[in-house]
Here is the input.
Amino acid sequence: MKLYHGSNVEVKAPKIIQSDRRLDFGTGFYLTTSYEQAQRWAELTTARRGVGKKTITVFEFDETLINNLNVLVFEQADKDWLKYAADNRNNENASDDYDIVIGPVANDRTAPVITAYFAGIYDEEETIKRLLPQKLKDQYAFKTSAALDCLKLCEVIVNE
Here is the structure.
């Protein structure tokens, strides 16, 4: 399966870099099956950092290699997904032992709903109810070097 990583630089050899950014699935190398989503991430990252070029790095993900890995999959935005993402955003899942976490990612239209949940304005039920009609894209967080070994570089696409 093809997976895409959007950034302001090419990433031919992905690494797990500790960051102070609090992401939905914690520290990891993030990819998506959506080229459009990766393109958006490339645009946002390039604008935020003010350097580099909008770049999409394409990988082949050999799913047969993950049989011996610890993988967590969220099929949809539900209470378990919301709690896991909230805990990571609050830096409370630092010690989980997953190699790969797969699940929905909020897009620009859903960000206000997630923000309202984190602020305590919506409870879990109201948040999920507001997210369900949205067409959420996916995200794959590769959290260990064993997980990264399942990826093979295909190509790098640089957009001016």
Q: What stands out?
A: The longest strand covers residues 151-159. The chain is about 30% helix and 25% strand. The beta strands are 2-7, 29-31, 54-61, 71-73, 100-105, 137-142, 151-159. The radius of gyration is 16 Å.
